[in-house]
Write a structure and sequence with these properties.
alpha/beta, Spore Coat Polysaccharide Biosynthesis Protein SpsA, Chain A
Length: about 325
Amino acid sequence: MSKPEISVVLPVYNEAEAVGDVVRQTIRTLSATGLSFEVVAVNDGSSDSSEEILLGLQKEYPECLRLVSHVYNKGNGAALRTGIRLAKGDIVVFMDSDGQHDAEEMPKLLEKIPTYDLVVGARTHEYTGKWHRNLGNGFFNWFASWLTQFPILDLTSGFRAMRREAVLHFLPLFPSRFSTEITVTLAFLKAGYSVAYVPVRVHPRTQGKSKINPLKDGRKFFLIILRMIMLYDPLRIFLPVSNFLLFLGLAAMAAGIWAAGRLVVPGSSVVLFIAGVLAMLLGLVSSQISNATITYHGDEFVKLYETPLSGANEES
């Protein structure tokens, strides 16, 4: 297979009921664009007939479908990592294989690259997911937006396109299980890459069962958000904590003075003041380490406006 322009990575784990339709729709959609492409299906140790279905599809589309299988289930992130390493295209597209994502929306993402380095398909307000998941996603979007100071519309969307050269920088950060999407979004933003959101249709799951546990995986999502911010911008976490502790120390001292009717410094205030100062110093040290070890990217595509030099002849 010659080098394609687009590589679509499909992580597959027990999706025998939907993966066939997803692969066919993806191939039809990209064939209509005139772009060269490949579909890299990563069977992540499925215990159902997913691998047999993919082998049949590979015989049907030998020119554009590639199949790789893990010997056992390693997780969604590990499957995406494998797919990115094997991809040949300059642009990599992530898409779930459960039928929720509409491949016909893919051109909307692709047309924004290379102006943007990462383009995420954001679920619209019409999407009717379960209420507790919508609530959780809303919280994570808000929390990540506050930490990154960038409006994040859909932090956990699994439908996204990106430049392969850019995402290769972050493969060692990929978690093996879920929340790879969170890692990719925050890493791109904090490393200086350009990120855009495009509204897309997302269909409710009608087949199979979701592999995400809202309580167990929600806790992991929260910790991964903190981990990524700590890696790139630790002061964004330490300074609010320090300010909060110092405020509590002042409040405790004010309450002690009011209760005693004279100037006193309660022991609780001393402890809170010390904790606040230590948090600030720890944040500064962490920031120095981060700035010394992290490589920032994101300068590949910029708009450059230059004024012609006065008096320059036309031939120059």
